[in-house]
Amino acid sequence: MAVSVVILAAGQGTRMKSKTPKVLHEISGKPMLFHCLEAAQKLSDDITVVLYHEAEMIEKRIIENYKNIHFHIQDALNFPGTGGALRGIEPRHEKTLILNGDMPLVTNEALHKLIDNNADITMSVIMLNNPSGYGRVMIENGKVTHIVEQKDCTPDQLLTKSVNAGVYALKSDLLKKYIPLLNNNNVQKEYYLTDIIEMAVNEGKTVLPIEVGEEEFKGVNSKFDLAHAEEIMQAGIRTKWMMEGVIMRLPQTIYIDSRASFEGECVLENGVSIIGKCILKNAHIKSNSVVESSEIINSDIGPMARIRPESIIQDSHVGNFVEIKKSTLNGVKAGHLSYLGDSEISTGSNIGAGVITCNYDGKKKYKTIIGKNVFVGSDSQLVAPVIIEDDVMIGAGTTVTQDVTKGSLAVSRVPQKNVPNFFYKFFGKK
Ligand code: UD1
Ligand code: CA
Q1: For the chain, domain boundaries
Q2: What is the DSSP string of 267-291?
């Protein structure tokens, strides 16, 4: 059966103590709402995100990244609460799945458990020894009777260990029928979505509790939860890529963005960070290196190297303390202590220790182009824009300010002068 999905993301998220809207806080490189949206996209072509706080900012971020998402602005002043969030929503399909935008760990498989049955309403239940913070699900003879929010619980009800994870699948016509009937007669004076459960039960509808894993349905409400969700997601990402053939040394020290991908046999040593949309193919990233939004193919990087966005490094060796930004290296060796920015370097070239591309004049950025088989001597500066043709040799310590033609030597060093016995004249004889 086709489903519509509604993602609730209108809440303020005060407990995050942040100016950033809660659902835009990132986990593994993406706002948590995006993880949730992607799980929804695997299930449905009719997705509505309910917004209110910072609606414009969140909507803009979604539109930049996803197509065909509908938006609904909650009338949160008159109808606050999760029930108020659903007022006026018109799902296209017979069934509606309701998700929270602060549930970044939810998986497609877990959601299928809620959808793939014939009950009028299915709801996610977690069994918790410490149920604090959640609505309690009252179950009698295996059947849900109603849900009581923590703030509305009697001391006895507070002991209930079955809690509402906040995800529901229900027949869309029931949603349309019950939402307008909700009231706000409760401690928080909010319109509780959870009250539709009791309405449905009273009309003899089947409400099926589905027990779900705490990890997958974890809601992020604080920065502590955010860090915890990140740990869980990272463990999952690393496991996935190890199963796909990536070798990891001390995996728990490695960070991998959810947008990164690996091919062939890659090695990630301890302390490596793979940030952004990276593509690594037969790459060996040595300890404590950072690779950001770049492609690394048949190359080794580090230890302690930093590859910044928009770099493409192929068949190359990049050693320790080398920083590369927006550069293409193809068959290059840059073994030590260099900054290579806005550059293109071709096959057979060797970049000596301490070489710097001076790509910025204080106003604009310029390119350095280095041809094939160029030997750039140690401690040289290449002042961009500059073109160094094939088969060029640059003497150590040269400041290159002019283009160099094929086959030449460029050297700008002050000639060496030796003054005999200067030491003794200056310091005296020992
Ligand atoms: C809700 C449930 C509670 C459940 C918990 C699971 C209700 C009344 N209670 O609690 O039983 O245990 O989720 O996490 O539904 N939101 C809106 N508009 C609003 C209020 C909230 O869109 O007016 C969104 C939030 O952005 C969030 C989601 O709904 O994504 C849940 O809101 P939150 O305040 O975290 O949940 P509770 O109401 O505490
Ligand atoms: Ca609330």
Answers
A1: 3-211, 223-410
A2: EE-TT-EEESS-EEES-EE-TT-EE
Dihedral in degrees, nearest 10, Cα atoms 218, 224, 229, 230: 170
Q: How far is 199 from 353, CA to CA, in rounded Å?
A: 74
Which one-letter amino acid corresponds to residue 380?
A: S
Q: Which ligand is nearest to the CA of 186?
A: 1
Name the 3-class secondary structure at 342.
coil
Q: How many CB atoms lie within 10 A of CB 59?
A: 15
Interhelix angle 223-243/32-41, nearest 10 degrees: 50
- Taking the centre of ligand 1 as the mean of its atom positions, its distance from the CA of residue 114, in whole angstroms, is 18
pLDDT, tens digit only, all 430 positions of the chain: 799 999 999 998 899 999 999 999 999 999 999 999 999 999 999 999 999 999 999 999 999 999 999 999 999 999 999 999 999 999 999 999 999 999 999 999 899 999 999 999 999 999 999 999 899 999 998 889 999 999 999 999 999 999 999 999 999 999 999 999 999 999 999 999 999 999 999 999 999 999 999 999 988 999 999 999 999 999 999 999 999 999 999 999 999 999 999 999 999 999 999 999 999 999 999 999 999 999 999 999 999 999 999 999 999 999 999 999 999 999 999 999 999 999 999 999 999 999 999 999 999 999 999 999 999 999 999 999 999 999 999 999 999 999 999 999 999 989 999 999 999 999 998 7
Ligand 1 is surrounded, with C-beta below 6 A, by 8-11, 50, 74, 76, 80-82, 84-85, 100-102, 134-135, 147, 149, 163-166, 192-194, 219
- Per the annotation, the verdict on 336 as an active-site residue is yes
CATH number for 3-211: choose from 3.30.450.20, 3.90.550.10, 3.30.505.50, 3.30.70.2750.
Answer: 3.90.550.10
Q: CA–CA separation, 317 vs 331, rounded Å?
A: 8
Q: Among residues 347, 398, 401, which one has the least CA distance to residue 371? A: 347
Ligand 1 atom index nearest CA of 193: 15
Q: Over the stretch 331-348, which tens digit does the pLDDT of each residue have?
A: 999 999 999 999 999 999
Q: Which ligand is nearest to the CA of 135?
A: 1
- CATH tag, 223-410: 2.160.10.10
